[in-house]
Amino acid sequence: MDESYTRHIEVPPVEDYCRLRAVAGLTPRSAAAAAAGLPNTVVAIVVRHDGRAVGMGRAIGDGLCYQVVDVAVEPEHQGRGLGHAIVGGLMEQLRRLAPAEAYVSLIADGPADRLYAQHGFEPTAPASIGMAQWLGR
Ligand SMILES: CC(C)(COP(=O)(O)OP(=O)(O)OC[C@H]1O[C@@H](n2cnc3c(N)ncnc32)[C@H](O)[C@@H]1OP(=O)(O)O)[C@@H](O)C(=O)NCCC(=O)NCCS
């Protein structure tokens, strides 16, 4: 990530959160869901370019377990190291925060597993398989 980008320990504002998820191709989330969930963020990173949010990532959890979520970079800023800066920043914060041993998991979409593998994550399959469902959709 070059010096035109700045990395902030910051929870993304609702509007930036919804926009970044959508432009990065992640399932769009409503402003209502974002407003309810974002204040419960445990650690977060926003990457800004000319002051504008162009990348983000968050982790949620309780000290025993954490989940890395919402890692997204605007397409025109992808491939410049922002993903590494975001995931690295989240893991640094979690290492400082975790009171004892902690389990950190995530669901890797498509080729994003290559990014996470470089930050210590290993596939859980075949021993265990991530499972998920939506409520209220
Ligand atoms: C995945 C994503 C966050 C990576 O961000 P990025 O800024 O492009 O990442 P970086 O430039 O730091 O590259 C990090 C690694 O990501 C991988 N990567 C690069 N472009 C990628 C892409 N378009 N999709 C997936 N992975 C990609 C590469 O393996 C790269 O590793 P390298 O260091 O060996 O080259 C970004 O591509 C994105 O927002 N994708 C769409 C949303 C998404 O899939 N989010 C992850 C949900 S789990």
Automatic annotation (TrEMBL):
<keyword id="KW-0808">Transferase</keyword>
<dbReference type="InterPro" id="IPR016181">
    <property type="entry name" value="Acyl_CoA_acyltransferase"/>
</dbReference>
<dbReference type="InterPro" id="IPR000182">
    <property type="entry name" value="GNAT_dom"/>
</dbReference>
<dbReference type="GO" id="GO:0016747">
    <property type="term" value="F:acyltransferase activity, transferring groups other than amino-acyl groups"/>
</dbReference>
<feature type="domain" description="N-acetyltransferase">
    <location>
        <begin position="7"/>
        <end position="137"/>
    </location>
</feature>
<dbReference type="InterPro" id="IPR053144">
    <property type="entry name" value="Acetyltransferase_Butenolide"/>
</dbReference>
<dbReference type="Pfam" id="PF13508">
    <property type="entry name" value="Acetyltransf_7"/>
</dbReference>
<protein>
    <submittedName>
        <fullName>GNAT family N-acetyltransferase</fullName>
    </submittedName>
</protein>
